Amino acid sequence: MRINLIIISVLLLTGCFRGSKFESTPIHLNPNMDNQQKYRSLEESKFFEDGSTMRRPIEGTIARGMISDDYSYLSGKNDDNSYLMNNPIELTEEVLNRGQDRYNIYCSVCHSQVGNGKGIVTQYDYPVIPANLHDQRIREQADGEMYNTIVYGLRSMPAYGYQLNTEDVWSIIHYVRALQRSQNATFEDLPKEEQDKLSGTS
Ligand code: HEC
What is the pLDDT of residue 16? Predict the structure, then answer.
């Protein structure tokens, strides 16, 4: 009886009961598969020929849920391979807000929040000059061309097709068009009453 009491109190004092909290890492008598070798993102790989741990999707593979048979929606091009002139997704407030959100995350670092190409990277010796999205040429380019610039990159601009899904790319384009309008607004774009206020006729 006494020996039992001693054993129980030793167990209690050393905290060997389920639910007890430990400060230090427990000793693993049988580590089994708790710790395994692994690669961390961006780590060098000795296994793959190109030395990169992070792998690109195999050419021609499509991730689950990403399939669509709408050629122009997915490629930004018409059947004859010319660029799609108009954004295939409908412009709604929700789409514009999503576009603004994604633009500010993915594009503004280079192109700035207003799209003039003076993003924060330009203050840190970024080696190339991001385009000013208000250039006449970019304002007039087909939505499908901008789609391809974003998805595949263009000259010194990196590709964003891996980070953004198709719907988001088209939403960003709607937002870039809104930015372009806002930076190139004319007197005629104002509602009638605002025009009257400014011209002093009311
Ligand atoms: C890392 C910096 C960087 C980011 C981020 C970036 N761009 Fe660019 N972008 C550039 C540079 C640099 C150019 C100029 C490319 C050239 O002409 O060599 C450019 C050019 C462009 C052009 C003009 C293409 C043309 O026809 O000449 C568009 C449109 C554009 N970017 C849109 C975007 C959008 C939308 C995003 C966000 C999804 C984005 N960019 C993100 C650097 C960036």
Answer: 56
Note the pLDDT tens digit of each residue in 70-124: 889 989 999 898 999 999 999 999 999 999 999 999 999 999 999 999 999 999 9
Q: Please state the pTM of the whole predicted model.
A: 0.71
Distance CA 180, CA 117 (A): 12
Residue with CA nearest ligand 1 atom 38:
107
131 lines ligand 1 (CB under 6 A): yes
Distance of CA 185 from the midpoint of ligand 1 (Å):
22
Say how many domains are in the chain.
1
Q: What CA–CA distance (Å, rounded) separates 2 from 47?
A: 62
Count of CA atoms in the C-beta half-sphere (13 A) of 55: 9
90 Cα to the center of ligand 1, angstroms: 24
| Any ligand 1 atom below 6 A from CB of 176 | yes
In a domain, 20, yes or no: no
Task: For residue 124, tell me if it sits in a domain.
Answer: yes
Residue 138 included in any domain: yes
- Residue range of the domain that includes 156: 92-181
